[in-house]
Design a protein that fits this description.
2 helices, single chain, mainly alpha
Length: 44
């Protein structure tokens, strides 16, 4: 529905959620989510 690979999405979210800030959990919702490697390239 959001054009995501469900396996990649779940794997990434489960990997990042343990140290993700509580007030930024909305970033991990499917409609806001960006893969970790894409986030790094946008920061540069």
């Amino acid at each position: 529905m959001n054009g995501l690979d469900p396996q990649a999405y779940l794997a990434d979210v489960l990997d990042r959620i343990h140290d993700h800030m509580v007030n930024r959990l909305a970033e991990l919702l499917p409609w806001n989510w960006k893969p970790a490697d894409q986030k790094r390239s946008e920061a540069a």
